[in-house]
Amino acid sequence: MKSLLLSVSLLTLCLTPLFGTFEDLEERRQAFVVETKQILASRYKDAFNPSVARWQGQTLLCFRARDPLTHMTNVVNLAYVDEDFNIASQLYPLVVPEMQLAGNAIQDPRLLAIDERLYIIYSNIWQLPTGSARRVFAAELQFDGQAFHAIEPEVFLRYDEGIPNNKFAKNWVPFNYEGQVLLRY
C-alpha cells in the first residue's frame, strides 16, 4: 500500500513567500527535489506552509494564508488537488473550537491520514502561568461538506517541565506507526 502522507520534502511546493518577491527554487534544486510548483488559491495570493495527504482516494492540500482584510496569517484552508497539484475543489476552511487557554494563531498545519481517518497537527498560542507560549495541538478532522472541523484538539504540555523559558514548541512531524498517530520533534 502506498504511503498515505506525501512527503513535502520530496515535492517542494513553492508558494508565495510572506514578504516580498518569489524566490526561484529551480536555481537551488537538489537531487531529491522532484519538482517545484506554485499553487494558486483563489482569494489568497500568498498561500504558504502547505501539507498534503492522500485521503479517501484523493489528494488533500492544507495551507495557511494571509487574511485579505486583517492581514493576519492564521487563515487555514483545505482543498482537493489534481495529480498536477492544481486546486480542483472549492476552498474549505479549518474550523477549530475555542479553547479557554488557546489563542487564535494557528501555524504549521500538518495533515495525516490513517485508513479513513484524517488528523491535523498544528501549533497555536497557549496561556501558561508564566505567559503565553506556542504549543503543538493534534485533532481528528471531520468534514461536513462545507468545512473541516478539528474535533476535541489536544494540546501537548507535558514537555514543558524542566525547560525554562521554552516559548516555542512547533514543527513536530506527524507519522503513522501501526495505525497510531505519532509525532517526532
In short:
This protein has no helices and 12 strands. The two termini are 26 Å apart. The chain has strands spanning 12-13, 36-37, 48-55, 58-65, 75-81, 92-95, 107-114, 117-128, 131-143, 148-155, 173-177, 180-184.
Structure description:
Strand 9 and strand 10 form a beta hairpin. The chain is an all-beta fold and 185 residues long. The model is unreliable at 1-19 (pLDDT under 50). Helices cover 0% and strands 44% of the residues.
User: With helices defined by DSSP (H or I, 4 residues minimum), what is the helix count?
Assistant: 0
Q: Which shape, going by the Cα principal axes? A: globular
Alpha carbon gap, first and last residue: 26 Å
- What does the largest sheet look like? 8 strands, mixed
Mean pLDDT: 80
H-E string: EEEEEEEEEEEE
Strand content is 35-45%
Query: What's the total number of strands?
Result: 12
Helix content: under 10%
Q: What oligomerization state is this entry in? A: single chain
